[in-house]
Automatic annotation (TrEMBL):
It comes from the Bacteria. It comes from Dubosiella newyorkensis. The keyword NAD does not apply. Residues 45-223 form the FAD-binding PCMH-type domain. This is 2-hydroxy-acid oxidase. Signal peptide: none annotated. One of its GO terms (molecular function) is FAD binding. Its cofactor is FAD. Pfam families: FAD-oxidase_C, FAD_binding_4. Keywords: FAD, Flavoprotein, Oxidoreductase. PANTHER family: GLYCOLATE OXIDASE SUBUNIT GLCD. InterPro entries: FAD-bd_oxidored_4_C, FAD-bd_PCMH, FAD-bd_PCMH-like_sf, FAD-bd_PCMH_sub1, FAD-bd_PCMH_sub2, FAD-linked_Oxase-like_C, FAD-linked_OxidoTrans_Type4, Oxid_FAD_bind_N.
Length: 470
């Protein structure tokens, strides 16, 4: 790692920062800091902070950053800690700014169809709030207990991306605290904006390396009145995946197109203690349609159902009740935790490839299991090409696991590059996937990223060693 000079926090710093915050219980030092703050959800990257501060306002974030900037103290922002690549792990220790107490919904503007929120608002609470007002926030990452600030920092995607897009498509404006403590605003409530470089979009997906989001203005849509899901069994995963481009070309675009295999479904059944609605096949497509009338949805899904049957589907199971729908999508939402529970440890990739190459990538994942000596389980967003593959440690020794995992990662990312794909579709790069990003992009791209970091953060105090930084 390059040598940046950082100040180690001492008792004097704690006293000074406590004076800025004013409430002792919102600062944790030494033995008060729980182990949770040293890692994210996956846990493969670990480093303890020296101090945890829980601000309740942009002004407090600003005050802490001004102090940190003046004293060269590294700062890492954190939400719920549900990330999977070590983005919120404080590699240079220093301060963690836990933004979970900044969890207020500030304004619903029904005339402009926007919602203004603080970064600590949980995705599930945000979704429930707008739906109570007959409105809709489409981004739908799998982890509903993630914060909106975390979603913005990784440009989270989710299952509805095939129709609606990702987090970036629904952020109109941001309030951001820069590394020097200045509070700035990027974007706003305007629908169109061609006023210079789009700094808002630069912050989205930057994983807290350029600034700390303290407020977000989100775009909303009218809530669709009806939703229907189709569970479609296929005799093989190949048949299922090969059907996806034809569904997209049919112009009857579903809200979501997910693929899943029987072995992952069985993990979810065991994890949830509930049976999946169907057991007749080795592979499934799970589709959701939404619209404002039953007729509109039926016209869309009837066309897709006929197409799937023509392509070799064994059946088309229509889930048109809340109870059925919940059982299917609850199983889909439990896949990650279920796979995690089926082994001693795991690591993951969320590579993304052009939709036309999804089948090639899935076939490749299964073909290398014997070569690398690991069980690999996968599922994903077939409609947008974002695949989640999980390498399982099982009973391997740490040394053997590292050797086999590195071989698997090298092969998978090399195949994604061959198929014109990218390292991450929605989880980000963080600390864990930096080397793969460097291998996948031209040197000019990496240099530009590091140059942007230098412009925003000349002292490199904000979440160092992430994304493109070695």
């Amino acid at each position: 790692m390059p040598n940046w000079t950082y100040h180690t926090i001492d008792e004097n710093d704690v006293l000074n920062l406590r004076a800025l915050i004013g409430e002792e219980q919102r600062m944790l030092w030494k033995e008060q800091i729980s182990e949770d703050y040293s890692h994210d959800e996956l846990g493969g990257t670990s480093s303890w902070p020296e101090l945890v501060i829980k601000p309740v306002s942009a002004n407090e974030v600003s005050a802490v950053m001004k102090y940190a900037y003046e004293h060269s103290i590294p700062v890492t922002a954190r939400g719920s800690g549900t990330g999977l690549v070590g983005s919120c792990v404080p590699m240079e220790h220093g301060i963690i700014l836990d933004l979970s107490l900044m969890n207020n919904i500030l304004e619903l503007d029904e005339e402009n169809l926007t919602l203004t929120v603080e970064p600590g608002v949980l995705l599930m609470d945000l979704t429930a709030f707008v739906e109570d007002h007959d409105l809709f926030y489409p981004p739908d990452p799998g982890e509903k207990s993630a914060t909106i600030g975390g979603n913005i920092s990784t440009n989270a995607g989710g299952m509805r991306a095939v129709k609606y897009g990702v987090t970036r498509d629904f952020v109109r404006g941001l309030e951001v605290v820069l590394p020097n403590g200045d509070i700035v605003e990027f974007g706003g409530k305007v629908v169109k904006n061609s006023s210079g470089y789009d700094l808002k979009d630069l912050i989205i997906g930057s994983e807290g390396t350029l600034g700390i989001v303290t407020k977000a203005i989100l775009k909303l849509l009218p809530l669709p009145k009806k939703t229907i899901s189709l569970l479609i069994p296929f005799p093989s995963l190949e048949k299922a995946i090969q059907t996806v481009p034809k569904i997209i070309k049919s112009k009857a675009i579903p809200t979501a197109i997910e693929f899943m295999q029987k072995e992952v479904i069985e993990d979810a059944e065991e994890y949830l203690g509930k049976a999946f609605p169907d057991h007749q096949s080795e592979a499934y497509l799970l589709l959701k349609f939404d619209g404002n009338s039953q007729d509109e949805i039926e016209r869309a899904y009837a066309k897709v159902a006929d197409l799937c049957l023509e392509e070799g589907a064994l059946d088309v199971l229509i889930s048109d009740t809340a109870e059925r729908d919940e059982s299917i999508w609850k199983a889909r939402g439990a896949f990650l935790e279920a796979i995690k529970g089926s082994t001693t440890y795991m690591d993951e990739v969320d590579m993304v490839v052009p939709r036309s190459y999804v089948n090639d990538m899935v076939e490749y994942l299964h073909s290398i299991q014997r070569e690398v000596g690991l069980r690999i389980k996968s599922f994903g967003h077939a409609g947008d090409g974002n695949l989640h593959a999980y390498m399982l440690k099982d009973n391997l020794s740490d040394e053997e696991w590292e050797k086999r995992l590195n071989k698997a990662m090298d092969l998978i990312y090399a195949k994604a590059r061959e198929l014109n794909g990218q390292v991450s579709g929605e989880h980000g790069i963080g600390y864990a996937k930096k080397m793969y990003l460097k291998e996948s992009l031209a040197k000019d791209n990496i240099d530009l990223m590091n140059g942007i970091k230098q412009v925003f953060d000349a002292k490199n105090i904000l979440n160092p060693h992430k994304i493109a930084q070695l």
